[in-house]
Amino acid sequence: MGGLLIVQTGTTRLLGDYPAWFSRALGRELPVLRAHDGERLDQGLERVKPQGIIVTGSPLSVTEWAPWMAQLGDDLLRVAEGGTQVLGVCFGHHLLARSAGGSVVVNPKGREIGSVRVTLTEAARRDPLFAWAAPGELEVHATHLDAVDPLPASATLLASNENCAAQAFRLSETVAGVQFHPELWGEAMRDLILSRREILAGEGRDTDALVKAVRENDAGKILKAFETEALRA
After folding, report:
1. Active site residues
2. Which residues pair with 148 in a beta bridge?
3. pTM (2 decimals)?
4. 92 φ, ψ (degrees, to nearest 5)
5. What is the pLDDT of residues 46-77, one digit of tens each?
């Protein structure tokens, strides 16, 4: 069959759940493997035979390492060695980093949420995921507590900011991760912020100001670039 496979690693009641966000961003419904419900990656590979795999975000945390996470991470790296493109987003970014020898921690700088800016490295200018972007900063949507620290020794840093040093990395020609959420759009980001109003208030954050500061951005082009690279293989 080819194409892309979404590996779901958790669930949310907001705006149709994680796979729906990626399907919206890429303009069509995509096949889904529900890893958090016990589905093994090889089941998805047999069913879809994907050229590219996107690993979603999750309310779960890699800092609470579970056997299914370890198995999934190892399987993803193995499949990538065979030439399948793999992109981890937020939780997926953490999972790939830890599976490749990096570490994931609760970010001591606190939660990052809303429209934020990340600085692209020189390596990002040459990377297929970011080659479309202008040099310098890129605006993205983010929501996370955990962060990769440190990156795997073999990883190349692609983007960072003051809150999170590892906003994007390239592990190999077939494996990359982004901390932020290129699949989100303005309405979804605002809804996510509002759903955390009580938590944010407890952290001393101004929810209304965060909502007002949300802007549309072009980060969804990262997913298009990933798809193009995967289908080219």
Report:
1. 90, 181, 183
2. 104
3. 0.98
4. -60, -35
5. 999 999 999 999 999 999 999 999 999 999 99
